[in-house]
Structures are given as structure tokens and as C-alpha cells.
Amino acid sequence: TPGEAFEVTDGMKNAFDRDGFLLVRGLYSFAEIERLEKCLKLGHVTKHAFDLPDGDTMNSRMVIWNHPGVDYTGLFGRCRRWLTPLKKLLGGEVYHYHTKVNMKEPHTGGSFQWHQDYGYWYKNGILFPDLLSVMVAIHKCDRGNGCLKVLRGSHKFGRIDHVRIGGQNGADPERLKECQKVLEEVFVELEPGDGIFFHCNVLHSSEQNHSDRKRWVIIPCYNRMDNDPYVDHHHARATKLHKV
Length: 244
Prior knowledge:
Elements: H1 10-19, E1 21-24, H2 30-41, E2 50-53, E3 59-65, H3 72-77, H4 80-90, E4 94-104, E5 112-115, H5 118-121, E6 131-137, E7 148-151, E8 162-165, E9 168-171, H6 173-182, E10 185-188, E11 195-199, E12 204-206, E13 215-224
Antiparallel strand pairs: 1-11, 2-3, 3-4, 4-13, 5-12, 6-11, 6-13, 7-10, 7-12, 8-9
């Protein structure tokens, strides 16, 4: 049922360990997503957005924050509905590392290069790849408007070196070619409220949005409490999470 709590079964945990991701339909109800979009449209959060050039004439916009507040975006980051499953998927208590909203506008939304999140989170002083992200669709995401793509099982490659491509961090192109030869590319098509949990070493990307439709997603990211970075950096250190 959309918007209801769910339990990670052993089969789901095995699938996550095998594939590096877990797709959950109806993680949030349509009414909850409408409320989130209404919150974002007020502009208090999105006024802090910045452009991400894709190196090919188009830009996506992103806004990012470290500590969830008490508005509706903060409730998303602190929601018990997925924090309990996160503990089982990552094997321990988690804290909120940061949340971002990626906004691809019609006809102008840029692509995201193939990358691993740990490819650059590693440089923030995080020793183990015990992090994951939960991407929830605010609008319908499909091939037409630049949905997420993942390489199934690519978290098993371990961390790959990353380089600057356009205004982004991308996986080493030569290494990436070889990875794409041996693993399946999956288009993650989502309805509003659907979510995908994915490991920080999963290779993922998305295409430009040439459609006349918005493609917005919210992506809270989490780290295990016992994996606190050994240096201060621009994202959150281990901080107790007040669940709602």
C-alpha cells in the first residue's frame, strides 16, 4: 500500500547485496509527494539551488543540505518508514549524511555522468563504503525525461577513480567502458512516490531531459554511525537522527 511502512525481508536484503539496489514501489503516497512538491515550490529551499553543467550545453539544478529541519523536506530525511529498513540494508544504525533535490527542467535539464557516490565521498575522510542513498520520484521518471540508470551489481567493483567531466565528477572513462561490457544497464523508471535504495558504490547516471515534463527527485543519503569521517568536511559528521 502506498505510504505504508515495509519490512526488509531476507530475500530483499539478498537482492540488495547482489544488485546494489532495491526498488520499492509506493514508498510514499501521491498525497505525500504533492505536499513535498508544495513545500519546495514555496522557494525557501530551492532558492539555494545551483547549476550543474553536464559538459554538453545543458544544466541540471541541485539544492543540498546536511541536517534535516522541521519542514516537510526535513520530515522526509527523518522518516522512520525507511530508516528502519536502512539499518538492515547497511547492517547498523545510520545518520543523515545529507539530502539533495535534483531538478531537471523541461528541455533544459542536463545529464549526470556515470559515477559512484563513494568515488568522491571517499575523499571526505570516510573509511568504509557503508553508505547508501534513497531516491524518491517527485515527478514521473522515465527514459523520456532522463530517468536514473544503474549498472546492476557494479558496487562489487569497489571504488573507481573519478575525474572532472564538465562540472561534475565522473567515473574514469576507460574503466567505465570495461564495466559496461560485463554488467546489465537498468533504466529505473519511477512513478511519483516510488523509491530506490542504492549502495554508494553503484555506478549510476541519467540522460538529458528533452521532454516537456519536469523530472524532480529527492535523495536523502545516509552513513553508518560507526563510519564517522576522520576529518571535518562539507557534509555532516555522525549526528543522532531524531526519527519521525
